[in-house]
Design goal:
There is one protein chain. The protein is an alpha/beta fold and about 425 residues long. The chain has 13 helices and 16 strands. The termini are far apart.
């Protein structure tokens, strides 16, 4: 193994507890070269020291400080491609409170997991994060000797579905392009990863996603083809060729008329979903897909809300969603309940991003962005793009109003407002 420096595999930041010592020992047994905070100055990371991965134990630090630290590390040129894993306490990573994870993912973390996890679980997740960086390297299907932990990977077969390549990863699952060996057709397979399988609430939410997508039965929502629970929980969906809005944004901003045309489609789809008593709650560019024929499809209903459901899978006070696209009421419950107006807010932010090339306030960092959202700072398009039609700015301002009752009452009303 090489010395700490450019040949280093990873750097570990955390309290020098017995648990951390055990973890470092396990890393050595697994063949990793590592250094800890006592040996290195964080300021040199990405410059004098360029590790493949960093593991951060949040310890007793506030979540705001941990988020800020991750953002600082990710901004360094030498660490843009590094895997960054964050360990948080079980109190922070409560069974169905995903807000710390979402904020950390948004800040640039590759993975977030409990600091109480067994060393072999941490190493399995580290292996996954590093292999994801290399995109197509196989991830073996393994089982921990202590926990029923599985990591599904490229080349594995779940049921009669072969996993061929990774298409995306998020807090509630990894999505693969797969192949149906019976019907000989491409499919998309969403797998609930690693130790999340151990948490009943997460499994229930994962299965609820399949229920919601099947219940909708709309051509604008990706169809569910199958569901499996051995050796991991997975959902099989139709495979669609095209690009999600995040990929489209990667090619630069779009002409306003094209943005309006896409937004009208999204608004009409939201209206149909809302009419079926479902709120998406996590609308963002990576969940909106444009196929090769230009048709819009919605993905990822993992944290959607069934308005007529008798059982809730979210504890009171939990924040669900992706911070920069979330409405004020998702952070500050005194502002009102979550409803169709919550999805309308997210669409307003997405329109702003497609026009400007970024979401408002992102440069302030996650914590300050959330403060700006809750305060209701206006998302004035023409401050950034004076050439934009005032009518489009008016639509965005109304859709992103701080108080829910000041937004469009229905998504269909927003779609009609975009007709000019």
């Amino acid at each position: 193994m090489g010395k700490i420096g450019h040949e280093s595999t990873l750097i570990f930041f955390g309290r020098n507890t017995q648990a951390n010592i055990s973890f470092l020992s396990y890393l050595e047994q697994a063949g990793y070269n590592h250094g800890n905070r006592a040996m290195l100055n964080a300021e040199g990371l990405g410059e004098r020291f360029v590790p493949e991965a960093l593991i951060i134990d949040s310890g007793l630090a506030s979540m705001e400080k941990v988020i800020s630290f991750v953002e600082t590390l990710r901004a360094k040129e030498g660490l843009k491609e590094a895997a960054i894993l964050v360990l948080v306490s079980q109190r922070e990573l409560a069974e169905d409170a995903l807000d710390p994870s979402v904020a950390l993912f948004q800040a640039g973390a590759s993975d977030v997991l409990s600091e109480e996890s067994a060393p072999e679980v941490l190493v399995a997740r580290l292996n996954t994060a590093l292999r994801l960086l290399e995109k197509e390297r196989p991830i073996p299907l393994t089982r921990s000797s202590h926990y029923p932990i599985f990591t599904a990977g490229i080349g594995d077969v779940l049921g009669h579905y072969r996993l061929d390549s990774i298409r995306g990863i998020g807090g509630m699952g990894m999505v693969y392009k797969g192949f149906d060996l019976r019907l000989e057709r491409p499919v998309a397979v969403k797998v609930l990863p690693d130790d999340i399988n151990l948490k009943k609430a997460h499994v229930e939410r994962f299965l609820r996603e399949a229920e919601i997508m099947a219940r909708l039965n709309l051509p604008e929502v990706v169809r569910i083809l199958d569901l499996g629970q051995e050796p991991v929980n997975y959902i099989v969906m139709e495979y669609i060729q095209g690009s999600d809005f995040e990929q489209i944004l990667g090619d630069g901003t779009l002409p306003p008329q094209e943005v309006m045309a896409m937004a009208r489609q999204v608004a009409r789809i939201l209206h149909r979903i809302h009419e079926a008593s479902i709120i998406h709650r996590d609308l963002k560019p990576s969940n909106i897909f444009r196929d090769l024929q230009g048709r819009i499809r919605l993905l990822d209903f993992g944290i959607s809300k069934l308005l007529d459901a008798e059982v809730t899978l979210t504890r009171p006070g939990a924040t669900m969603g992706t911070p920069v696209y979330m409405a004020p009421e998702q952070f500050e419950h005194k502002l009102g309940e979550i409803g169709r107006w919550t999805d309308i807010y997210a669409l307003g932010v997405i329109i702003y991003e497609l026009i400007v090339g970024d979401v408002p306030f992102r440069q302030l960092g996650i914590v300050n962005t959330i403060k700006e959202i809750v305060m209701g700072s206006p998302m004035a398009l023409r401050k950034v793009r004076p050439d934009i039609d005032p009518r489009l700015e008016k639509v965005v301002l109304k859709a992103t109003a701080r108080q829910p009752h000041k937004r469009y009452a229905m998504a269909l009303e927003m779609a009609e407002a975009l007709e000019f």
